[in-house]
Amino acid sequence: MNATSTVRRPILTAYQRTRILLSIGTIACYALFWWMSKQFDVPDEPGFGASLLLEPSVVGALALALVGLLVAVVIGTVIAGRVRYDAGLFCAALGLMALTIRGGTLVDVLHQRPVASTYLLLALETAILWGFVATGAWIIGRLRTIPILRDPHLPLALDAERMDWDWTKAHHVLALVLQVVIMGLVVGLLGQSADKAQVLVAVFVGAMVGTMLGGNYFAERRVPAFTCAGPAALAIIGYMLAWFSPAGLAIGHTGHSLARPLPLDYLSAGSAGAILGAWAGLKYQIQVLDTVVAMFTGWTREERIVPPGAG
Questions:
Q1: How many domains does the chain have?
Q2: What distances in angstroms separate CA 187 from CA 143, 232, 238, 282, one per listed residue?
Q3: pTM for the complete prediction?
Q4: CB–CB of 214/281 below 8 Å?
Q5: For 121-165, how does the pLDDT look when each residue is reduced to its tens digit (9 = 90+)?
Q6: Checking phi first, is residue 285 left (phi over 0); if not, alpha (psi -120 to 50) or beta?
Q7: Which of 15, 59, 140, 151 is the 20 to 30 A CA-CA neighbour of 244?
Q8: Does any domain span residue 5?
């Protein structure tokens, strides 16, 4: 008998295994947040409560979001951590959507508190939630030292080659700006109303496209907090614009598309979309950022790489 004929093919391909594990992790995290939301009455009025800082117990609502996110990160990493380095945060971010789906929209927030300073409150909530996401990213960094939870294809030394720090830092700033600008254009185009499904799709697609076009600068550094900074920055920009011209408060309306998604929308769908975009950017290597930099400076990224041990 031919030896090759006795080789058994795996039941699942790597592609199928990856998606199954990510799906299981996402469902587990979503179920966790849904259960916690109902168990602890956050939001206090399902279908209407839309801001954690406007809940009757602000401390309780924020604590639920933080504890839920950290537990979800651990669950997602245990289930799918060997698929992608930041798969746990991806699953946790999608799970966090349960809180915003059970809540309301910007219209409900403005009806509850029809003053311009409400937008400043939303900007503050965005910064707090990004801090929670950054804490989740830190947890991932600790979990990746556990061999059974670590992606076997990811070396402990994340950078195989040392690059000039100033050049790398400048590229990361430009990548973040590009991510925010492109995401803003997509959200402005797709987020034409405060409808929950519409803003979630707009934020997710915008974050994914904006991060993907940033090339591999997000993915290669393996810093999920940096990857998710774009959605948070765009949210704060949108709320500040709405604060400067708060027309339509009395009817729960804003003319600023970037202010229609809520902080939970940006940090759940936005973070998940950004992480997915980083994965896609690493895979497809679109390198829009490299093209722009080379166009204006004549420098290519490869020319600035410092060989290991140099300098």
A1: 1
A2: 34, 13, 10, 23
A3: 0.84
A4: yes
A5: 999 999 999 999 999 999 988 877 776 666 554 444 333 333 343
A6: left
A7: 59
A8: no
